[in-house]
């Protein structure tokens, strides 16, 4: 891997908050020979997923934050993270960038969030045959070396203690990781069930929403139709009110019924206005209006039948009146003819009709009693002298009947 000049992602997270058990370093030497490249071998644990900005740094032992790295290399992302080969990884540090002193260092795997995911055991950079070199020193130098060795031993003991602590922490972290992985699996299972349940609930809600939209559209259409129907009913009621006013003008009982219907009609109008806000009660009110309309129609039909009967009787009476009127006119014409004929006869006989005493026809007068058409007796009897002096009996001619 080529060295990249870009600074790696770091953080100020302390050592206690790092997770050293997720990446394990393998085959770490106790010391590396200066002047040569160093290959770092590491293994990714089962549940750890590397990311593009992860890196491995060389840190001096005793570091506190990831900002204290000496050098670093970017990690290589495996092609298939689920294969066994993807778990075994390596990076190579060039000799030019390695430390030149003999201090203790260690490899650390840092993710792109600046959090340490694994750390190796400490190692040094020194020659391989350093222990075989014969050094001639003075007593002072020997004491100084011994003192330095004591310090190194103390530091080595500290490093061993630190290593033991790290191993214990690593073991604890492995157990915690295992526990967390089990909890994660449980949470994943619960999450999966919840997602399925949420999906089912979402589908159910979407279906209910579609049904509600369809019902809303149907209700809107029904409301429009009901509004048209209400307008029609109002127009019908207005027309029927006018017709009822005309039909019941002379009838007090029917006037009271009409007033009652007017009150009911007013109540229906108010009810209709309220029912525009309360759609659930509208159908019931319309049914009541239909029933009242049917009753009104029946009453109207009864009145029309009565009017028809009265008109029929009036027509019959008019026909009878016309017949009687014609008969009266015929009788008057016959009377006029008889009067003229009588006047003519009297004039013919030289008598004055107005000066003669009137003799009402009786049932014992000759032909007048036998034939009802002889109104004034026998016209051919002439002038008969009565036994009483001064009385004259006058007969008249029989006129032809006007009947065919």
UniProtKB/TrEMBL annotation:
Belongs to the CALCOCO family. Residues 381-390 have a biased composition (Polar residues). Residues 23-125 form the SKICH domain. The gene is CALCOCO2. One of its GO terms (biological process) is autophagy. One of its GO terms (cellular component) is cytoplasmic vesicle. It is found in: Cytoplasm, Cytoskeleton; Cytoplasm, Perinuclear region; Cytoplasmic vesicle, Autophagosome membrane. It comes from the Eukaryota. Residues 142-348 form a coiled coil. InterPro entries: SKICH, UBA_autophagy_assoc_protein. Keywords: Autophagy, Coiled coil, Cytoplasm, Cytoplasmic vesicle, Cytoskeleton, Membrane. It is a peripheral membrane protein. The keyword Cytoplasm applies. Residues 359-404 are annotated as: Disordered. Pfam families: SKICH (PF17751). The keyword Repeat does not apply. This is Calcium-binding and coiled-coil domain-containing protein 2. Gene3D superfamilies: 2.60.40.2840. It comes from Equus caballus.
């Amino acid at each position: 891997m080529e060295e990249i000049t870009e600074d790696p992602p770091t953080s100020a997270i302390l050592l206690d908050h790092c997770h050293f058990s997720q990446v394990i370093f393998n085959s770490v030497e106790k010391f590396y020979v200066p002047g040569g490249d160093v290959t770092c071998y590491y293994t990714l644990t089962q549940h750890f997923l590397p990311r593009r900005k992860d890196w491995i740094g060389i840190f001096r032992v005793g570091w506190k934050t990831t900002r204290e790295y000496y050098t670093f290399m970017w990690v290589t992302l495996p092609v298939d993270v689920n294969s066994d080969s993807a778990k075994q990884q390596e990076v190579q540090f060039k000799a030019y960038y390695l430390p030149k002193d003999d201090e203790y260092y260690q490899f650390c795997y840092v993710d792109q969030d600046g959090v340490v995911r694994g750390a190796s055991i400490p190692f040094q950079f020194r020659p391989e045959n350093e222990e075989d070199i014969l050094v001639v020193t003075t007593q002072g130098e020997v004491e100084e070396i011994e003192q330095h060795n004591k310090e190194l031993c103390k530091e080595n003991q500290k490093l061993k203690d630190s290593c033991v602590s790290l191993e214990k922490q690593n073991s604890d972290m492995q157990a915690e990781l295992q526990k967390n992985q089990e909890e994660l699996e449980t949470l994943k299972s619960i999450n999966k069930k919840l997602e399925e349940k949420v999906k089912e609930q979402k589908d159910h809600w979407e279906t209910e929403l579609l049904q509600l939209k369809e019902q809303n559209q149907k209700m809107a259409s029904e409301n429009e139709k009901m509004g048209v129907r209400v307008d029609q009913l109002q127009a019908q009621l207005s027309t029927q009110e006018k017709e009822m006013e005309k039909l019941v003008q002379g009838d007090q009982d029917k006037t009271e019924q009409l007033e009652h219907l007017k009150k009911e009609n007013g109540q229906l109008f108010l009810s209709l206005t309220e029912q525009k806000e309360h759609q659930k009660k509208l159908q019931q009110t319309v049914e009541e209006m239909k029933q009242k309309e049917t009753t009104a129609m029946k009453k109207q039909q009864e009145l029309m039948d009565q009017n028809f009967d009265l008109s029929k009787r009036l027509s019959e009476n008019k026909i009878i009146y016309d017949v009687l009127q014609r008969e009266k006119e015929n009788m008057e014409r016959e009377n006029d003819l008889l009067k003229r004929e009588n006047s003519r006869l009297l004039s013919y006989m030289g008598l004055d009709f107005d000066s003669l005493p009137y003799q009402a026809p009786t049932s014992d007068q000759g032909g007048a009693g036998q034939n009802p058409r002889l109104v004034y007796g026998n016209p051919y009897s002439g002038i008969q002298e009565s036994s009483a002096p001064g009385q004259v009996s006058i007969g008249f001619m029989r006129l032809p009947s006007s009947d065919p």
